[in-house]
Specification:
Elements (H helix, E strand, L loop, with lengths): L3 H15 L6 H8 L3 H7 L3 H23 L6 H17 L5 H8 L1 H14 L1 H13 L9 H13 L11 H19 L2 H15 L1 H16 L1
Length: 220
């Protein structure tokens, strides 16, 4: 007997792999091994299923992020893990997912945008504030502006449509750019500390890879 959670999880995998508009309800039902009529006994509409998928994906995202970040970690380590996690999750999602979502349901698209711009910022803000208190960052740093500037790099923009675009190389390059951005925000004390930790921070994206891989295995 199929259950609601399995439907949402499998649909999430299809949407993130192929994009929303490329996956029909018939294909979702076929992948689940059920008829479309049986599928609609669990959901009222495709839009309701999409909402459930978004809720599921954001919950999973936050769960993974909270498991990765520990209170005792150094400020720079927490920031490195934070951004590398976002980059790696973003890398697993088909580039057409968000454009498709915006076309299919703009309210769902705004939910994702608000999550990124507000909820995720509420995680990074206290980390940076901790760094300011430790005199690692400049006291006049505009935390929200710096965050939005860094998060916009992860989106990829025009580069994702380029024939030269390589997702794996692009992800690692963006992570390095973000770390270099952090260096530019530091105080003299912070600059000295992050310079000593620079190579270790670059390796955090590999550590994040292992964490996501383990989580994927646990969910399968």
């Amino acid at each position: 007997m199929i259950d609601d959670r399995t439907i949402v999880e499998k649909t999430y995998l299809l949407y993130t792999k192929y994009g929303i508009k490329s996956v029909s309800v018939d294909e979702i039902a076929a992948m689940l091994g059920i008829s479309k009529k049986t599928l609609y006994l669990h959901i009222r509409s495709r839009d309701e299923l999409l909402q459930l998928v978004i809720d599921y994906s954001l919950t999973q995202f936050m769960s993974g992020l909270h498991k990765l970040l520990k209170p005792e970690q150094h400020v720079f380590r927490k920031l490195g893990l934070f951004y590398s996690y976002i980059i790696k999750i973003n890398r697993k999602v088909n580039p057409s997912f968000l454009p498709d979502l915006k076309k299919v349901n703009v309210m769902h698209f705004r939910t994702i945008q608000e999550f990124r711009n507000d909820k995720l910022f509420n995680i990074v803000r206290p980390i940076v504030e901790e760094g300011i208190r430790q005199e690692l960052f400049r006291p006049d740093l505009d935390i929200k502006l710096a965050y939005l500037h860094q998060i916009s790099k992860i989106d990829g923009g025009i580069l994702k449509g380029s024939p030269e675009y390589n997702q794996a190389l692009f992800s690692d390059s963006i992570y390095k750019l973000i770390i270099n951005d952090l260096i530019g925000m530091t105080s003299l004390k912070g600059h000295q500390v992050i310079e000593r930790q620079y190579e270790e921070m670059l390796l955090l994206i590999k550590e994040c890879d292992q964490s996501i891989l383990q989580k994927t295995k646990q969910n399968n």
